[in-house]
Amino acid sequence: MALGRILRHNRNVPVGMAVLIIVTLVAVLASWLAPHDPLEQDLPARLQPPAWTAEGDRRYLLGSDDLGRDILSRIIFGARISLVVGLGVIALSGTIGVTLGLVAGFRGGWADTVVMRLADAQQALPGILLAIIITATVGARLSNVVLVLAFTSWPVFARIVYSAVRSLKEREFVQASVAAGASVSRILLRHVLPNVAATIIVIAALQMGRTILAEASLSFLGLGVPPPAPSWGGMVSEGRHRLLVAPWTTTYPGLAILVTVWGINLLGDGLRQALDPRLRHLR
Amino acid sequence: MTRYVARRLLQVPVPLLLISIVVFALVRITGDPAVLYLGQDATPEQIRTLQQQLGLDQPIWIQYVRYVRQAAQGDMGRSLRYRRPALAVVVERLPFTALLATTGLLLAALAGVVIGVVSTRYRGTWGDVFLVGLSVTGQAMPNFWLGVVLVLFFAVRLQWLPTSGAGEWRHLVLPSVTLASFIMPHMMLLTRTALLEVMQDQYVTVARAKGLPERRVLYRHALRNALNPVVAYVGLQFGNLMGGSVITEIIFAWPGVGQLTIQSIFNRDAPVVVAAVIILALIIVLCNLAADIANALVDPRIRIQA
């Protein structure tokens, strides 16, 4: 289905897409948009309330944290971390999961057994728990967070692609290219993959929302991107001890997570509805 | 049916073994248990003696095989911090996590189904749009943030409920709500989609054609059939909540297995970490097994396909 038609028929997709584009622009243009350096401390101006309140300081639109850093600038730069982790994890886990799913589904036999048992094993433990244990062991770093979250989320892709390939394998157009002597990689890339591409895009969008939440959760526990880097989950965690005196230190980063994930979920859900004809009339 | 159950039972140990290998290897990376046990002041001589006693001088795969053999008999090593059997330390915390997971799940199921039904009943109205919107937003909510906000309002501002800890029922309220918020939106949307799908079936048309009031059609005919996927989902989620309640347990200082696992990671108490992870994985695998068997009992197609 063409993108134009999806955009016209589904209200969720354009809204979700707009949110994702805005967050991406904020992340890319962070250096120009942010009024302050996100790491710059201004101790005399610590815990300033948002600018529109009576005691607010006009220099700090969304207030400042307990080191006098500008909340708005930290949220703007925080978008970079969330997006880098979200996109990095999806790219990595998507590539691994789709490849393994394609091979396991098409080859069957031992490849099927090994890949699917590995995927089962990961389902025996919630991803977030496994991610916590691994990051706690290997150390909290941006690259480690991406690797760990990719490691815990490839089975989602593998499973979906696996079952799609298993049913496609028996279809005539695939059988025909087998009979014509096409190589396995050619069959998978030219005939099978284009048929599961739509599903993969939907899973990628929905997984990206989950990944951003997972990164925020890890940062909240102190196991994500280490301070002083401005990660949204870390900001909620730093502010929660001053919740009563300075609620803005946790409220706005929390809202940033909520809106971003909401937009991405909307996009994923909308695409799923648009691409699955069975769901289209159930709204 | 017996064959199906037997085949599913045979699959149980595989994920447990794989998980245990990963965790066993991971905690070994963090440091030598003998050094961690004896502390900084131990002489190399003392460390070497303990390594020999514990078999730590052997290759890691031999250590692993011995660990599995002992674990199968209920011996999962001794906690470095509590100086007691690690399994006992973990099992002590299980009831807390089970209680939290159960109340969270019941709350989510009840609220999710009720809101899902209401939303379907008033399908297409502003109320429906609002409820669906609320659920979609709920799915995007970081639940640690919700926990923090709930503490602010109900514990600090209004002082109705305690901020953290465990003991009486009041301690359970905020953690359960936080945990439930995690799956409730999905439960609601699942109920709504299942109901809408069932409402298009012929027997619903027949019930309507008989002149039955819409309420009766919804509750007596459609809902019963629509609840199958919801019940299956509840079964699968119990295990996930047992392991996925880590963050909720930390926010509310709830003394469950999740909190113990995190504390033990930071305390470098390797035997407890490994024991906790294996026990949680075992519970999750068994919950999934129970859910699968229950589904197969209800739906013969699953038995044949598998």
Count structural domains of chain A: 1
CATH-assigned homologous superfamily of chain B: MetI-like
Tell me the CATH superfamily of chain A. Answer: MetI-like
Mean pLDDT score of chain A: 86
> What gross morphology of chain B would you assign?
flat
Strand content of chain B: under 5%
Average pLDDT for all residues of chain B? 84
Task: Determine the structural class of chain B based on helices, strands and strand pairing.
Answer: mainly alpha
β-strand number of chain B: 0
Shape assignment of chain A:
elongated
The name of the CATH architecture of chain B is Orthogonal Bundle
Question: How is the CATH topology of chain B named?
Answer: MetI-like fold
**What gap, in angstroms, lies between the N and C termini of chain A?**
19 Å
Determine the strand fraction of chain A and express it as a percent band. Answer: under 5%
Q: Architecture of chain A, according to CATH?
A: Orthogonal Bundle
Total number of helical segments of chain B?
15
The number of helical segments of chain A is 12
Structural write-up:
- The complex is a heterodimer of chains A (283) and B (306).
- In chain A, 72% of the residues lie in helices and 0% in strands.
- Chain A is mainly α and 283 residues long.
- The longest helix of chain A is centred in the first third of the chain and has 37 residues, at 71-107.
- The model of chain A has no long low-confidence stretch (mean pLDDT 86).
- Chain B is an all-alpha fold.
- Chain B has one domain (86-305): MetI-like fold.
- Chain B has 15 helices and no strands.
- Chain B has helices at residues 2-10, 13-30, 33-38, 44-54, 60-72, 86-121, 126-140, 143-157, 169-198, 202-209, 214-244, 246-251, 257-266, 270-298, 300-305.
- Chain B is flat, with a radius of gyration of 24 Å.
- Chain B starts with a helix and ends with a helix.
- In chain B, 39% of the residues are buried.
- The chains are: A mainly alpha (283), B mainly alpha (306).
